[in-house]
């Protein structure tokens, strides 16, 4: 059996590198076994058939009642169990950048210790079945808003699975992220919720302010001031939603010198006053 690199073999060579990609996959009885090298994290949403997936040190059998989230870098051997039928699924690939952006936006981005696993089993339900039906490579290839639509679909399924499996799923998502991080990014991300000024964080990175801003924008695709403000306001919203602390309790820790400036920034970001959360 030849080893295929996916999703590379499914992507038009004329396209640029993609953060999200959908592919309608079918395996028939004439291809009972296949070997693949997985180059991106991938949802395999099963619709028809059943198969067994072999990993380096384990294997799992799945049917149409289940789907899998698979970690990039895996070398997989897939075996069709019912040779009289077909195996049909929707493959939804996503980049590590897309994942880290999602975790930063919607979670506290805590990275607890968790033993790594090559896969996460998803039990299909009515919502997931409806979601799978909405995925089609043809739809997103031909739609002029395909990138925006795919981003919405990615956030949708991720949020649903976070709600369905809670911290178990969140911990697994963190295991999909490469463990190596540059000293620059490590300093940035360890100070997301500090009240240090940009100049002080630049000093910790051993950079001048101008050099820091240039490196930051290259790494995060937006200026540091806006990035830190968005992350800290999101943290403030999470704290206020817990119903224990008040705006007066948290504005200094979020990096604001007075309650008024914090309230204005919060309302500009979320459209409501922090006292109304």
Automatic annotation (TrEMBL):
Q: Where is the HTH araC/xylS-type domain?
A: 182-277
Give yes or no: UniProt keyword DNA-binding.
yes
Gene3D superfamilies in the record, alphabetically? Homeodomain-like
Protein's recorded name = AraC family transcriptional regulator
Q: Does the record bear Transcription regulation in its keywords?
A: yes
Source organism phylogeny: Bacteria, Pseudomonadati, Bacteroidota, Flavobacteriia, Flavobacteriales
Enumerate the UniProt keywords alphabetically. Answer: DNA-binding, Transcription, Transcription regulation
Its domain of life? Bacteria
PANTHER family per UniProt: ARAC-FAMILY TRANSCRIPTIONAL REGULATOR, HTH-TYPE TRANSCRIPTIONAL REGULATOR EXSA
């Amino acid at each position: 059996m030849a080893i295929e690199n996916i999703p590379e073999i499914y992507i038009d060579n004329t396209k640029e590198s993609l953060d999200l990609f959908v592919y309608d996959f079918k395996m028939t009885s004439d291809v009972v076994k296949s070997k693949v090298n997985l180059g991106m994290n991938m949802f395999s949403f099963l619709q028809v058939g059943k198969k067994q997936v072999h990993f380096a040190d384990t294997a799992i059998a799945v049917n149409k009642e289940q789907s899998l989230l698979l970690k990039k870098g895996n070398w997989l051997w897939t075996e069709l169990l019912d040779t009289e039928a077909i195996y049909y699924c929707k493959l939804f690939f996503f980049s590590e950048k897309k994942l880290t952006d999602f975790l930063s936006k919607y979670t506290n981005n805590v990275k607890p210790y968790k033993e790594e696993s090559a896969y996460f089993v998803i039990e299909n339900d009515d919502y997931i079945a409806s979601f799978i039906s909405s995925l089609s490579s043809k739809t997103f290839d031909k739609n002029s808003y395909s990138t925006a639509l795919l981003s919405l679909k990615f956030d949708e399924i991720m949020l649903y699975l976070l709600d369905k499996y809670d911290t178990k799923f969140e911990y697994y998502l963190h295991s999909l992220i490469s463990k190596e991080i540059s000293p620059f990014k490590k300093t940035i991300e360890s100070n997301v919720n500090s009240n240090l000024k940009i100049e002080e964080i630049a000093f910790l990175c051993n950079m001048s302010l101008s050099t820091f801003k240039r490196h930051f924008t290259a790494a995060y695709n937006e200026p540091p001031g806006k990035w830190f403000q968005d992350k800290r306001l999101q943290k403030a919203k999470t704290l206020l939603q817990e119903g224990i602390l008040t705006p007066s309790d948290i504005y200094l820790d979020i990096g604001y010198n007075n309650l008024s400036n914090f309230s204005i920034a919060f309302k500009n970001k979320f459209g409501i006053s922090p006292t109304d959360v």
